[in-house]
Structure formats: structure tokens, C-alpha cells
Amino acid sequence: MNRRDFLQLSVFGVAAVAMPRWSLAQVESGYAYHYKLSAEPTTVELVPGFKTDVLTFNGNVPAPVIRAKQGQPVRIEFTNNLAEPTTIHWHGLRIPIEMDGVPFLSQKPIMPGETFTYEFTPPDAGTFWYHPHMNSVEQLGRGLVGAFVVEESIKPDFDIDETLILKHWHLDKKGAWKALSRPRYAARMGTPGEWGTANGTNNPRFEYPAGSRVRLRLANVDNTMTYNLRLQGVKAKVIAIDGNPVIEAYPFDQHRIGPGMRLDLAFVMPEQGTGTKTSTDNINTPSVVLEYLRGQFGFPLAHFQSKKGAASPAKPMPKLAMNPIPVPDLQNAETLPFVFEWEGAISPVDAAGKTHDTFWLINRRPWIGMGPGNIPEPVADLKLGKTYIFDLKNNTQYHHPIHIHGHTFLVLEMDGEPVTPFYTDTVLLGKNGRAKAALVADNPGRWMYHCHVIEHMKTGLMGYVRVS
Ligand code: C2O
Ligand code: CU
Ligand code: CU
Questions:
Q1: pTM here?
Q2: How far apart are CA 452 and CA 404, in angstroms?
Q3: C-alpha dihedral (431, 432, 437, 442), degrees to nearest 10
């Protein structure tokens, strides 16, 4: 057995026996969904055999999956045990602005040692996630990323409901940190990490009874990477994009998820060994392999083995109900053009006299950050209740997952072609890509609007819209 085989086996050994299922500290109270959450520095083993200093939620990698229920209040008492201020943002949830977790725009930064209680009622069911919205390159990059699952008010009957958060950590082979951001890369596709993980483990293995109806929730919580996903060894269907059920489930072939984006798949666990071996795979009979593609090559992210026994009698695959997202009034919509551009030469100076690398622009303007009493003008003013069509245009050679807070887009067109409309909070623009996405501005407040490649948002590709 060579060293590589040994390493992989030992990873599998650990993962199969003890894929951690960290539960949140649930608090007894009038709330059915009441949790305690904290951000804290911890040391964990990510690369087997080596220790890494990370930032965690509740001391664990992966962060706990927060489970809430559609239409039911959730309360999260969040304590900041970091050495710096932070806030928590609930990515994809259409909740009031006071709970959106953006410093200065929606709340004061939560200082070290302070507790802030987030309390809201998620209107939509689906796969969402949570992360800080301060010092994001560092705070997200070092581990503060977690899944937030909102269960349907009437729970669909899957046998397995699995959530995987995908992240490439910026670690070397001995678990030591490498630079999270290099200007040279920030001005291009972003600085990629090298240690690929699903739920904090490199290539974990899961075992499900053959015949189980599996719902696989995938969330790209990476700072930089766009994963072009495929699933080998089974015919799966796409059932939801960015938490939102698709109008009609369709066969899954390949799908790109940029940073911040999610994908829900459904499949029936096959009997055994139907999977094709991948280039970097040394397991004999993988059943199902989740991979991401780089050019022709597939790299495994997770393995799913079937185990004998209790194959549930063939029941139909459940269908997801649509979320109550307001329907855009396209007849009376106003179109707003947004052009995303690159300009390497700008280095504006902020109020404190610090220069900032700004490589990216929205409508000719770079975002240079904000502070108390120093909030730039919005990129657009939206009238409460009105429908807008965001006409997105990427004039650069790089991908940009364009994300909006507090609202959900209905995508109408991609690259000039009409598409089957789908709901999303993040639209992935490819190289020189375009999209048309509609929304009803029904949530009053100042909502961040930015690229979710963290280095892009930190070097200019950010702004906010004001709904009033
Ligand atoms: Cu995932 Cu501004 O957020
Ligand atoms: Cu968000
Ligand atoms: Cu970008």
C-alpha cells in the first residue's frame, strides 16, 4: 500500500465511522427553534495528521447545520468569541433588514465578547447558509461558514437528507496556512485554496441503504472556487437551485456553482458498484461519486456507497412545493443596467487615509467599504413593491456570482437566450456573460448587492440597493 492509498483509507476510515453531526446548543424556551451559536478560534485536524488553527462556529468543523422551519420563528443567540468584530449574515433568506447581518448598513458590528440575538421567520424553505459579513477574506476563509436548512412546512418524504458544504482551504500538505488573498489573483479569478473538503473532510464516504431516496444539498461556501459538479454512478435530478425548488425537476448532468451558490439533487441509491472510477479514485466499487470537473478531469469531492438491507419499498420521489416568492410584474417592470468591469489602476484613499486595492467596478464605481457615518450612495434606488429587471453584463474574463440580499431573483435570460425561469439569490455570470433577472422590491431596506468571490467583493465588486 503506498502512502497515498494509506492516507485516503485512513481518511475514509475516520469519515465512515464518525462523520460528525454537530448539533447546535438548543435552548428550551417558547421558541421551537432557539439556538446558541458562537464564533471562536479553535485548532482542528483538517489535513490528517496535522493541526490547523481555524475559526469555527461552536468550536467545530464543519459548522453546525442550523435547521429551522418555514414560517416558524427562529432565534439565534450569537456570541462573538473572536478577537475582532463580526456580524452574521443569513445568505438567501428573505428576512427583515435588521436581521441581515451587514455591519453599518443593518446593524452595529458585534464586538469581541458581545452577544447579539438574531430573530426572524424564514418565509422560504430550502438550502441556505450563514457566514460573517466582516473581514470576509479572513473570517470566511479560515472557517466561518455553515449550512442553514429551512425545512418545508410539510416535510417531503426523503429517506436521506444530506447536506454537504464544499470548501477548498488555503492549506499546504501539512495543514499550514497559505495566503488567503494575493493581489495578483484578487485582480483575476481569486486565490484558490488547495485542500478540498466536503463538510471539512477530504473526500468523505457516506453509506446509504440501496434503494433510499436521497436528497443531497450541496452548498459552495468557498471564497473563490466555482465548482463544475457532476455525479457519477447514478441518474440524479436537479430539484432546487440556491434553495429554491425548480419549476420542474430535470436530469442532472453538469452544473456550475459559484461561491455562495447551492444545488439540491435527488436520486435513488443504486444497488452497488455502478460508479465509474475517476482519474483520482482508488476505491474498487464506488457506487456514486460527486466530482468537480477541471477540463476533462473529474476530482472526487465525496463518495456514496450502498449498503445492503432495508431498501425501502419503491416509493415515488417527493416533489418540492414552490416558495412564496412574489411574482414579478414583467409588463410594468423597469430595467436597470448593471455593468461589471475590471480596472486595475484605481487605488482610492478612504477617510482614514488608507489606500485600497480596487480592481472591480459596478457601473463605473468601485466599492471602497464603509464605516460608521460613512456609507456610500446606493448603486440603485428601488421603489417598494415595484418590479425591476436587472440587466447584468460582465465585461471581464472572469466568473462573477452576483448575489443580492433580502430578495430572490427570477432569472429570465442567460447570455442573451431565454431560459426556463428559475429562482435564485445568486446569478453566475460567465466570462463576458450576461443575464436578465427580475425581482419585486418588496423588502424595505439597504440590501447588499455584490460578487460572492470574496476577493472581488473586497476589491470593488460590491454595492447596495435601497428599497423604500
Ligand atoms: Cu453570502 Cu453578502 O453574502
Ligand atoms: Cu447574502
Ligand atoms: Cu467576481
A1: 0.91
A2: 10
A3: 80
Residue found under cell 469555527: 56
| Apex 392 CA angle, 407 and 367, nearest 5 | 75
Task: Give 10-residue mean pLDDT values along the chain (468 residues).
Answer: 35 36 64 91 97 96 96 96 98 98 96 98 98 96 98 93 98 96 86 96 93 96 97 96 96 97 96 54 67 93 84 82 96 96 67 70 85 91 98 95 98 97 97 97 97 90 95
Surface-to-core class of residue 335, CB atoms within 10 Å of its CB (0-12 exposed, 13-18 middle, 19+ buried): exposed
Grid coordinates given for 240: 432546487
Domains and their CATH numbers in the chain = 3-151 (2.60.40.420), 160-307 (2.60.40.420), 330-467 (2.60.40.420)
- Residues near ion ligand 2 (CB < 5 Å) are 91, 405
| Cell numbers standing for residue 84 | 475582532
Residue 450 Cβ inside 6 Å of ligand 1? The answer reads yes
**What is the DSSP secondary structure assignment for residue 121, as one 8-state letter?**
-
Of all ligands present, the nearest one to the C-alpha of 460 is 3
Write the DSSP symbol of residue 404: E
Cα–Cα distance, 126 to 118 (Å, whole number): 19
Nearest CA to ligand 1 atom 3: 91
Distance from Cα 397 to the centre of ligand 3, integer Å: 10
